[in-house]
TrEMBL record:
Pathways per UniProt: Protein modification; protein ubiquitination
Family matches, as InterPro entries: UBR7, UBR7-like_UBR-box, Znf_FYVE_PHD, Znf_RING/FYVE/PHD, Znf_UBR
UniProt GO MF annotations: ubiquitin protein ligase activity; zinc ion binding
Catalytic reaction list: S-ubiquitinyl-[E2 ubiquitin-conjugating enzyme]-L-cysteine + [acceptor protein]-L-lysine = [E2 ubiquitin-conjugating enzyme]-L-cysteine + N(6)-ubiquitinyl-[acceptor protein]-L-lysine
Ranges of biased composition (kind: Basic and acidic residues): 212-243
The name this protein goes by in its record: Putative E3 ubiquitin-protein ligase UBR7
GO cellular component annotations of the record: cytoplasm
Length: 375
């Protein structure tokens, strides 16, 4: 007879808290009650693909958080985390026989939506599902901020840095598609451990500074030239290109915090980014971290709306106090009960929980029966 696998209450509480934080970071930034379609192409939102309604072989489609709950309850869904500039497809032409319950009137297609193999539950350059039942290697997946695909760390072609959750990544394919991004890498990209080691040994000098930045501020220039430069700021990208510093153009690139603010935003570069569909790189509020912070703020504002307190509004003062005292007593006793298991690292069994609530039930019956007088 094999022993039943057990975990301590501490493990359960820690895992539950971690999962709750991850879920709230993704979901709290999206509306769980109303279809996002009327908002148009939402800047960033939690999305799902329904394998029941749009399986592989059909047209790719994505649904918002609210529709995943209301219109696709019980369906086989792929969680896509978040996508930018997406409009909910639920119930449009791609869904034969299914009408959106939250917003039935929709265009046949959303022509500006971008789709990938993620919408059929496939990820990375290896195009495998996640979780992958055939993959025995424990490996985290990281999202590219450009194509928004999820890639295995071992398939990035580079060393994954520490504190990766604080850094944005652009995959090698997107870097090669937008070659000008490589110009920024030598100056802004997170260096690999190998490069850092060389610098510590003095094998590589400090990054060269563009000549325009080395010029002395004391050099007199014609006033007309100065005013023209003030009106038309120089292109930082061009200066970096002229500096000539390069890095090996292979593998994914990790970028440090606030790297977007260091990109050139001159008129020429804005046109370049727009033509490449990368204007969002100049928007620091586009980041997943900004979206998650927004979700956390929403959750904190909503914490004051306790369902219990809403129900209490319909009771008189005496009833409110009685229920509040009983509720707080039960919470305190449950906390004390569970704390004994947590402090000793013991496992809480279903019988333990059942026993606790049976004791609570007996206490209520004794209290409700009133005082007992013996003759």
């Amino acid at each position: 007879m094999c022993e039943e696998q057990t975990v301590s209450l501490v493990d359960v509480l820690e895992e539950d808290e971690e999962l709750e934080e991850e879920a709230s970071a993704v979901l709290a930034g999206s509306d769980s009650d109303h279809c996002s379609y009327p908002q148009g192409y939402v800047k960033r939102q939690a999305l799902y693909a329904c394998n029941t309604c749009t399986p592989q072989g059909s047209e790719a489609a994505g649904v918002c958080l609210a529709c995943s709950y209301t219109c696709h309850e019980g369906h086989d869904l792929f969680e896509l985390y978040t996508k930018r500039n997406f409009r909910c497809d639920c119930g449009n032409r791609k869904f034969s026989g299914l009408q959106c319950k939250l917003h039935p009137e929709k265009d046949d297609v959303n022509s500006l939506n971008k789709y990938s193999h993620n919408f059929f539950g496939l990820y990375c350059t290896c195009r495998r599902p996640y979780p992958d039942p055939d993959d025995q290697v424990e490996d985290e997946m990281i999202q590219c901020v450009v194509c928004e695909d999820w890639l295995h760390g071992r398939h990035l072609g580079c060393v994954v840095p520490d504190c990766v959750e604080m850094q944005e990544m652009i995959c090698e394919s997107c870097m090669n598609k937008h070659q000008f991004l490589w110009t920024y890498v030598a100056h802004l990209g997170v260096q690999s451990p190998a490069v850092q080691k060389k610098e510590e040994k003095g094998e590589q000098s400090e990054p060269s500074i563009p000549e325009s930045e080395e010029k002395s501020d004391n050099i007199d220039e014609p006033s007309c030239k100065r005013s023209r430069e003030e009106a038309e700021p120089s292109c930082r990208l061009k200066e970096l290109q002229e500096a000539g510093q390069k890095r090996d153009q292979s593998g994914a690139v990790f970028w440090p915090p606030a790297w977007r603010s260091k990109l050139c935003s001159c008129s020429s570069c804005q046109v370049r980014l727009s033509d490449a569909g990368l204007s969002f790189l100049l928007d620091e509020s586009d980041t997943v971290l900004a979206y998650e912070n927004k979700g956390k703020n929403n959750e904190q504002r909503q914490q004051g709306h306790d369902p219990l307190m809403s129900a209490l509004d319909n009771l008189n003062r005496v009833q409110q106090l009685e229920i509040i005292h009983g509720y707080n007593d039960m919470k305190t006793e449950l906390k004390d009960f569970l704390q004994t298991f947590a402090s000793e690292g013991k496992v809480v069994t279903p019988d333990d929980i059942r026993q606790f609530f049976e004791q609570q039930s007996r206490k209520r019956r004794r209290a409700d029966s009133g005082p007992f007088f013996c003759s």
